[in-house]
């Protein structure tokens, strides 16, 4: 059984390396959507808490769209985690490990404190507003913004891979 798993894992990582640019490109696209969510969080939720003015108010339709964008974070976390796991698999370094941990702290944010909790807490609505809840809301926001170094790094990795031509076999194959 162990040999079977090792063989399958080796095949998966060989495939992953062969299509590295595509895999990292997918992670980049998924994570760039998070910039929309982070902008809304700052310009609406945080701004409203600090200044009592929203610089990006949303109606129900757009708020639903922002929630969908936020949940596109799930495949983004998975695809980007694979980038760092692949690098750590080849050679241990602290930077990818730290970025992997920052990235996967998002699970805690997604399933522990949702944006709805943050909004209700900041607006002092029925189930929000105690000192502990306000503190937790700020922690959730901080966790959300831990994506920024990961987004920067993953875009940098894609640009580097494109410059080096690594993992572009799928494009070369299609051009033949």
Please characterize this protein's 3D structure:
This protein has 176 residues and is an all-alpha fold. The protein has one domain. The protein is built from ten helices and no strands. It is elongated.
Give the helix/strand class.
Answer: mainly alpha
Span of the ends, CA to CA: 39 Å
Largest sheet: none
Mean pLDDT: 83
Percent of residues in helices comes to over 70%
Using the CA coordinates, give the radius of gyration. Answer: 19 Å
Order of helices and strands: HHHHHHHHHH
Enumerate the spans where pLDDT stays under 50 for 5 or more consecutive residues. none
DSSP strand count: 0
> Judging from the principal axes of the Cα atoms, what is the shape?
elongated
Query: How many domains comprise the coordinates?
Result: 1
- The number of helices is 10
Q: Percent of residues in beta strands? A: under 5%
Search tags:
176 residues, mainly alpha, elongated
Summarize the structure.
With 176 residues, the protein is mainly alpha-helical. It is built from 10 helices and no strands. The termini are far apart.
């Amino acid at each position: 059984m162990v040999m079977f798993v090792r063989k399958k894992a080796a095949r998966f990582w060989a495939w992953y390396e062969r299509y590295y640019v595509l895999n990292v490109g997918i992670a980049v696209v998924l994570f760039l959507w998070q910039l929309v969510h982070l902008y809304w969080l700052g310009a609406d939720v945080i701004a409203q808490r600090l200044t009592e003015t929203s610089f990006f108010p949303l109606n129900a339709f757009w708020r639903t769209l922002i929630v969908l964008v936020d949940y596109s974070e799930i495949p983004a976390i998975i695809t980007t985690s694979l980038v760092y796991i692949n690098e750590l698999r080849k050679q241990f370094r602290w930077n990818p490990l730290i970025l992997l941990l920052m990235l996967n702290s998002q699970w805690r944010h997604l399933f522990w404190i949702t944006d709805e909790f943050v909004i209700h807490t900041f607006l002092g609505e029925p189930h929000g507003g105690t000192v502990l809840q306000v503190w937790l809301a700020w922690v959730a926001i901080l966790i959300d913004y831990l994506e920024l170094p990961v987004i920067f790094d993953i875009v940098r990795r894609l640009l580097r891979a494109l410059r080096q031509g690594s993992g572009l076999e799928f494009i070369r194959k299609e051009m033949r």
